Amino acid sequence: MRYICSGFVKTPYETLIKKGQVTMRTILLLYLLLLPFLSFGQEKIGYAYDAAGNRMKRELVLPVRHSKSKQRTAKPASSDFSDQFTGHTVTITPDPTSGMVRVRLSRLSATDRCTVAAYTSQGAEVYTASSATDGSDVDLHVDLSHQPAGVYLLKITVNDHTSTWKITQK
User: Average pLDDT, stretch 20-39?
Assistant: First the structure.
């Protein structure tokens, strides 16, 4: 079916568009074009690298949706972080209220040499402590309370073996 209007031939579809009516096909097309932007645009991907520049971890960072109801924050059962290297156990306990970081070294022998140092992100040393062991555990307190907020590297060395930790002071 065709309509002739002032010398031009129009189809029924052209007539509907001229009258301002939108078809279901147009709505479906717009929906399919906008779907990726609406559903996946809020996600971010974070990467973690080692000292040599190799990518070690990829994380998907999702946004936090805020609800209008009261939210309760659960305190973690333990804020200790521990690691094993060369047969020794390193336990790090941060205290965010005082700016102190407790470093505990376990399973040390009487001949082990321990060094703990803290560096700024620019590489300036802000804390260092050495300890000779007598075969017992070593407990050191790293004081970062007088330092400005930022990221610090905590370098723990036992007999030429090093473990590096990233500390964020708020």
Answer: 74
Instruction: Classify 87 in phi/psi space as left (phi over 0), alpha (psi -120 to 50) or beta.
Output: left
Task: Kindly report the pTM of this predicted structure.
Answer: 0.52
Of the three residues 33, 62, 91, the one that is the final residue of a domain is: 62
Tell me whether residue 103 is exposed, middle or buried, using C-beta atoms within 10 angstroms of its C-beta: 0 to 12, 13 to 18, 19 or more: buried
Q: How far apart are CA 142 and CA 150, in angstroms?
A: 15
Residue 75 lies in a domain: no
Residue 72, in any domain of the structure = no
pLDDT tens-digit series, residues 144-153: 888 888 888 8
